[in-house]
Structures are given as structure tokens and as C-alpha cells.
Amino acid sequence: MVNIKELNPGSSPQAAFGARLRKAREARGLKQDELGTLIGYSGRHISGVETDNKPPSRKFSRSVDGALGLAGTAESFERAWGELRNGSLLEGFPEYVGHEGRAVEIRVFEVGIVPGLLQTPEYARVLADSAVRRGAITPGQADERVAFLIERQAALVRARPPMVIVVMDESCICRPVGSGKVMDAQLDWLAEFAAQPHTMVQVAPFDMGELRTFNRPVNLLTLSDRSVVSYVESQTQGHLDREPTSVVPLLTAYHQLQAESLSQAASVAMIKQLRKGTP
Fold first, then answer.
1. Which of 166, 225, 245, 276 keeps 20 to 30 A from 137, CA to CA?
2. What fold is seen in the domain 9-86?
3. Are 271 and 173 in contact (CB under 8 A)?
4. Quick one: which of 150, 128, 151 has its CA closest to 139?
5. Residues 6+ apart with CB under 8 A from 118
């Protein structure tokens, strides 16, 4: 008699995904190997997902939907995968990203690392792999994190792209991430990004001191109806806000920050100097 592992769907969102997969498979009278054959995975892979020993991927979830006739439905496993992935993101961020993909203007301030929308895949991979080494995320989550970032960047490539305004603390470009090759390519891309007609890149230099208006990352979106949404996060929390009484002061502070930061020309010159290894 086959020893079937008892599942506890309440132990984690991923366990709930696995339990639902087993239930859907068995309801259709399919063995793990049979479902695996239908979707191009091994029965062992199916077992790993069902028993919470292997995280599902987007590709896997889409394949299951296709085989079980669930694509585009409320019971879609791809949809469940999205909820599973977003569950590991800070509160408010998934909703923010949804607005970001439709915004007409995007304003970003970042401290310490290059903002996600401007990261090269290699730079993003170094950050994700570092989180894996610290035990903060799994290798599978690292892959999803990089893929998610690439999706965000791709959403900005439209017939009428949004205006993207980025102010980076000087620490973002001075702190080396990965090898020299990775950092050089990242600095090159920042200069290329700044040269586009719908972008603006500025550096908030160290010597601006107390005139820097923010001490944590801030994102501001102007939507098509000209309303503004803000997203501010700390190390452990994110907060999405639409209330004008709290969003407008952030927008004012962002304009004040821009006024004190280096011009785009001076910012690009600083980036190119760092690229060449000059102080």
C-alpha cells in the first residue's frame, strides 16, 4: 500500500497550494505521473509541490491550468501562484505594482541600492542570491524575485511610456554590488536610462546633508486621472496611500528633494566618473 503523506493546508500558503493541487488532480482521477506527463514534469516534481517540498513556479502553474481546464478561471493555479508570491511581498506592494503598470508618471527615491526599475538583471540577481545566502529567501524565491522585477520593467515599455523620475541617494551608486563587471554594466545602464526622452535621473549627493527630505524609499505614482498614489516602505512594512492629506506633503517633499539634488547632467557626469574609477 502506498504511503500517502497527510497534508496540512493551514501550515503555510505553499502547503495550501499543494493540497489544492492534489485535490484537483485526484478529482480528475489522475496519478502524479499521469499529470506530470500532461504538463511536461515528472511525477516526482508533482509530488514535491503537493507535499510542500518544492515551490511551484509560474510556468508550472500555467501548465497545470492548461491540463485541468482552469486557465482564466477563479480556480486558476496561476492566480493562486500569484497570491502565493505576493504574500511574501511587503503589505501594499502588489497593489502598488498594479498601479505602477498603468501610471502616467512615476517618481522614485531610493537609498543604498539602485532602484528596482533601473536594475540590470545581473545586479538584481546578485541581490537576490545574497538574500539566499543569508537564509532570508529560498533559491526558488530568488528566481521569482528577479522574474518579478523584469515583469515590472517590461510593463513600462508601452506605446506611450510613463515619465519616470528617479532621485537616488549617492550611496546607491557608490556602494559596489557584485563584481566590477556587474557594477560597471549597472552604471552604464543608469547613464543610458537617463538619456531617454521620458526619463529623469538625479543624484542626491552626500554633501546635501540635512536637506535630504527622505530617509527611506518613497514611490509616487500619478495616474491617468491625475490622482497621486504613494508607497513608502521600511525594512519590514510597506504602506500604500491614496489620501491627498498625506500624499500631497510627500509630493511637496519630493519636489524639494529634486531642487537640492544634482541636475541630471551633473548626476550623469558623476555616474560616468564612478564608471571610470575616478572619485
1. 166
2. 434 Repressor (Amino-terminal Domain) (1.10.260)
3. yes
4. 128
5. 166, 189, 190, 193, 201
- Tens digit of pLDDT at every position of the chain (279 positions): 345 566 666 666 678 888 899 999 999 999 999 999 999 999 999 999 998 888 888 889 999 999 999 987 878 888 777 766 655 566 667 778 888 888 999 999 999 999 999 999 999 999 999 988 988 878 878 888 898 899 889 888 888 999 999 999 999 999 999 999 999 999 999 999 999 999 999 999 999 999 999 999 999 999 999 999 999 877 666 788 889 999 999 999 999 999 999 999 999 999 999 988 754
* 202, 263 Cβ separation under 8 angstroms: yes
Q: Residues 53, 112: contact at Cβ < 8 Å?
A: no
Unique residue bearing C-alpha cell 529634486: 258
Give the class (CATH, top level) of 93-119+155-276.
alpha beta
Helix (H) or strand (E) holding 219: strand 218-222
Indicate if 93-119+155-276 has the same CATH topology as 9-86: no
CA gap 131, 224 in Å, rounded:
36
Q: What does the H/E/C string look like for 130-178?
A: HHHHCCCCCHHHHHHHHHHHHHHHHCCCCCCCCEEEEEEECHHHHCCCC
Identify the residue whose cell numbers are 546578485: 126
